[in-house]
């Protein structure tokens, strides 16, 4: 091959390498704004989360205040309206212990509206019945 062919091959290789470098530099610059956009979006999200939790804390404080107002209202009403003698006779003797609700939620015998019969309670077998039942099973297998 003559020097002219080598010159053309070198020129083509140089153009290809140069084009690849330009393409990489341009691609890198186009990705830079998207990284900045992601950072800005992340910052907006963090601010939104912070605002959400601040508002949640404020709402919980309002809920606590409302609960206290209801409690105070009930306490004042009980103090003014309830006959203390009648309460002492009807309330179990709890002394200075705190009275707590055992179950919170729908009662166990809850049934949907329109249901006429009460749900049956599960039958508990006594030890005497269980042993009598076992003997009956033993007799039938003989």
Task: Give structural notes.
The protein is mainly α. It has one domain (3-104). The protein is built from three helices and no strands. The relative contact order is 0.03. Its main location: membrane. It is a single-pass membrane protein. Residues 106-123 have a biased composition (Basic and acidic residues).
Please specify the SSE layout and strand pairing.
Layout: H1 3-81, H2 84-90, H3 127-141
InterPro entries: ZapG-like
Membrane topology: Single-pass membrane protein
Keywords: Cell cycle, Cell division, Cell inner membrane, Cell membrane, Cell shape, Membrane, Transmembrane, Transmembrane helix
Write a short abstract of this structure:
The protein is mainly alpha-helical and 142 residues long. The chain has helices at residues 3-81, 84-90, 127-141.
